[in-house]
Amino acid sequence: MLPQDQVDVWKKRVAGHAHPMEFAIDLLRAIQAHHGWVPDAGVELAAEILGTTPLKVEELATFYDKIYRRPVGRRVIRLCDSICCWSRGGVELAVYLQDKLGIALGETSADGAFTLLPSCCLGACGDAPAMMIGLKTYGNLSPERIDQILSAEADEARP
Ligand code: FES
């Protein structure tokens, strides 16, 4: 789940801290960054490092929608389906993306490059319609712009 040297660093960081659970999300993100997603073994490792139960970690892991408890593609596309984006062509773009990637919302492309997920507001309403890929937000989307973005992201996402 994590290389031993990283486990040791996390254990040192947590040791003696009055509120170890404050590290939980950062630790889960580290596991996800290393493994691609957070399997049960990742939850168990985080619980061991934090000195708590897997259930406590699981409660957090399943609350935050950017912690992935199932395998995802190398890039996760989060397409906003909230009101501003919806009213500015978001539904049509959702159809376009699904057709282009050959997958439905919630699925991963056959080459493992992209997972497509619906998302609540991304805070980019002024640039609606918008989507996030990884930590980048893309606004003013059109089919042409999506083509350019996916092409660049696919290059970066090559294994
Ligand atoms: S409604 Fe889509 S970014 Fe806010």
Automatic annotation (TrEMBL):
Binds 1 [2Fe-2S] cluster. It comes from the Bacteria. Coiled coil: none annotated. PROSITE patterns: COMPLEX1_24K (PS01099). Pfam families: 2Fe-2S_thioredx. Keywords: 2Fe-2S, Iron, Iron-sulfur, Metal-binding. Its cofactor is [2Fe-2S] cluster. One of its GO terms (molecular function) is 2 iron, 2 sulfur cluster binding. CDD domains: TRX_Fd_NuoE. [2Fe-2S] cluster binds at C80, C85, C121, C125. Transmembrane segments: none annotated. InterPro entries: NuoE-like, NuoE_dom, NuoE_N, Thioredoxin-like_sf. Belongs to the complex I 24 kDa subunit family. NCBIfam families: PRK07539.1-2 (NF005722). This is NADH dehydrogenase. It comes from Geoalkalibacter ferrihydriticus DSM 17813.
